[in-house]
Design a protein that fits this description.
Structural class: mainly alpha
Largest sheet: none
Radius of gyration: 22 Å
Order of helices and strands: HHHHHHHHHH
Length: about 260
């Protein structure tokens, strides 16, 4: 590309990015204003909790179990050098509750549930189902978008909690059952060192934020998708990529705010 065309191209991309960001903000505010149906007819939201949460259980539970096992193996080899192998439970629990539970489950949630929500809304747009709703005086944001958004927001913290719980179970199986770390020390040190407010509550806050971000990106990309097969495919790809980057960025910001005084 000639240098004379480079700066205009960069300017167009920046301008388009700013425009989409402003459009997404307006979309979010409109969706919040139309969210009454998601709670007045809560069965719609329950259906989406099942779709985004229950159907993601297998990948969340299996991933959490193996992440906990790997943490226990790696942590034991490191702690044993310093004679602190009894603190294995603390290492596994804090790593999962503070960081890996919300982040990894958020990435899995984006790749499985977020992409499915985007594809579903994008297909409804491509087949003109959303336009048909507008013709029948049914607001598609209230009927289609809002229940999916709130379903993801509610499901994500539950999935992160299950991820952390199964990860701790995996750490127990490797550390106590397989390696032979003292079971009493494993659980007692975990209980004494893991703080409810500083660790568990902060992990829940992270998972809530990640759930809201991923759900917003998923419904926005689906609603804004070009109504073609290629457009829906591109929107699904953007959902996974954008959600992953936003989760990692938000995790850094939240960690800096939560644990700067620890």
């Amino acid at each position: 590309m000639p240098l004379a065309d480079l700066f205009p191209a960069i300017g167009r991309r920046v301008n388009n990015g700013i425009w989409r960001l402003g459009y997404a903000a307006r979309f979010f505010l409109t969706m919040l204003g139309r969210s009454g149906i998601a709670f007045s007819r809560f069965s719609l939201t329950v259906k989406e909790i099942y779709f985004t949460g229950v159907l993601s259980l297998i990948v969340i539970v299996v991933s959490g179990l193996f992440v906990g096992m790997v943490l226990a193996l790696q942590g034991y080899n490191t702690l044993q050098r310093y004679g602190s192998s009894e603190a294995l439970g603390v290492l596994v629990a804090l790593s999962l509750v503070r960081e890996l539970g919300p982040v990894v489950s958020g990435l899995l949630f984006a790749s499985r549930a977020g992409s499915a929500v985007t594809a579903e809304i994008g297909l409804m747009k491509a087949t003109e189902q959303l336009s048909a709703m507008e013709m029948m005086a049914v607001n598609p944001i209230a009927r289609v978008v809002a229940p999916r958004f709130w379903g993801g927001v509610i499901a994500m913290p539950l999935l992160a909690a299950l991820f952390s719980a199964t990860g701790i179970l995996g750490g127990y199986l490797i550390g106590v059952v397989l390696i032979g770390v003292d079971e009493g020390a494993f659980w007692s040190q975990m209980q004494s060192m893991v703080d409810f407010r500083e660790d568990i509550v902060n992990g829940v806050i992270k998972s809530l934020v990640f759930g809201a971000l991923v759900s917003l990106i998923a419904v926005f990309e689906g609603y804004d998708a070009v109504p073609t097969a290629e457009g829906v495919s591109n929107a699904t790809t953007r959902t996974v990529v954008t959600s992953s980057l936003v989760i990692l960025f938000a995790d850094f910001i939240l960690t800096a705010l939560m644990f700067r005084g620890s």
